[in-house]
Amino acid sequence: MNKFDYIAIEGVIGAGKTSLANMLAQKHNARVVLEEFEDNPFLPRFYEDRERYAFQTQLTFLASRFNQQQRLFEKDMFQDTIVSDYIFDKDRIFARLNLSDDELALYDKIYSIMSGIAAKPDLMVYIQCSVDRLMENIRKRGRDYEQHITETYLSELSDSYNHFFKHYTKAPVLIIRANDADFVNNPEHFRAIEHCIFHEALTQDRIYLKP
């Protein structure tokens, strides 16, 4: 049986990160760490006007994610494994996409200090999903401020995520093709993912899973 101290799950908005993190944590009595996006007061305004509110939104997320990362180092005597629905490194994906050159230069000075001492996962799970499926998931969950998200923005974000994980080397990456894996509603699909993570030998840098 695989023993990971820190499993991180990533994917574009609406890919199902939080659902999978909660399901795996419940199955294995793990400590779940979820991104605190609702605490960012600039996020609703960002989706209405990206250019105006991108910098404030990004710095708020950076500070929040870093504070959470520091708490990951705190041990829980009853729960050895941590499952999170994001990684600290994701912050720069959004920064590169949304900030101006001057803003990004300032952001990078702060990010470079924080990233060196942020927690690094033992296993990275990347949920890859089509833009159509992402839009459908976003509509279904019905968060008011997310209704301003456009297909164009999701497409840009998806391309950025794919590029990031193509070059990610800090941990093995398990890539789940979410268009073919309904792990929320299909127990067999979830069991296939859970078995791959906890019971199969993950010896490659990239593992593609399509239940």
In spatial order, strands of the major sheet run 2-3-1-4-5-6
CATH level-four homologous superfamily name = P-loop containing nucleotide triphosphate hydrolases
Please trace the helix and strand order, writing H or E for each element: EHEHHEHHEHHEHE
Radius of gyration: 17 Å
The share of residues in helices is: 40-55%
What is the residue-mean pLDDT, rounded to a whole number? 89
Characterise the protein shown here.
This protein is α/β, with parallel strands linked by helices. The chain has one domain (6-209): Rossmann fold (3-Layer(aba) Sandwich). It has helices at 17-27, 43-48, 50-71, 90-98, 101-115, 131-141, 151-166, 187-199; strands at 6-11, 31-33, 82-84, 123-128, 173-177, 206-209. It has a 6-stranded parallel β-sheet with strand order 2-3-1-4-5-6. Strand 5 (173-177), helix 8 (187-199) and strand 6 (206-209) form a beta-alpha-beta unit. The longest helix is centred in the first third of the chain and has 22 residues, at 50-71. The mean pLDDT is 89. One of its GO terms (cellular component) is cytoplasm. Residues 7-193 form the Deoxynucleoside kinase domain.
Short characterization:
By secondary structure, this protein is α/β, with parallel strands linked by helices. It has one domain: 3-Layer(aba) Sandwich (Rossmann fold).
